[in-house]
Amino acid sequence: MSAKVVLTIELEPQLRDMFMAEAAADGRPPAQLLHDLMPDYVDRRRQARDYDDFLRRKVEIARRQWDAGRHVSNEEAEADAAAGRERLLQRTAAAIVDELAPTTGTPSDLC
């Protein structure tokens, strides 16, 4: 087992009293609660830092693309998206018409 250390913290009396009362209500030692809460806090902070790093890299890439002239205006992006939606609607409508169209041939051909 790893060595243990003592952590001393300063709290407002009211916060300490509320924490101690909640720990007692759970039937758990306050030290165990802190021990259980710390890994979650560390994980959340690491995830937040990782996301901040991801976002920072994404912005840096976008800025380099902008500086290199590799960008489109909002109007161009909206027009491209609208055209894509229209193509999708047309393909969907054509597929529905094809599915609903009567089959060719005589009833005896279908048997």
**Counted beta strands:** 0
Largest sheet: none
Distance between the termini: 77 Å
- Count of helical segments? 3
Number of domains: 2
CA-based shape: elongated
- How much of the sequence lies in strands comes to under 5%
SSE succession: HHH
Uncertain segments: none
What does this structure look like?
The chain has 111 residues and is mostly helical. The protein has two domains: 10-68; 73-99. It has helices at 13-26, 30-67, 74-100. The radius of gyration is 32 Å and the shape is elongated.
Highlighted features:
about 110 residues, mainly alpha, 2 domains, 3 helices, about 70% helix, elongated, Antitoxin of toxin-antitoxin stability system, plasmid
Topology:
Blueprint: H1 13-26, H2 30-67, H3 74-100
Summarize the structure.
This protein is an all-alpha fold. The protein has helices at about 15-25, 30-65, 75-100. It has two domains: about 10-70; about 75-100.
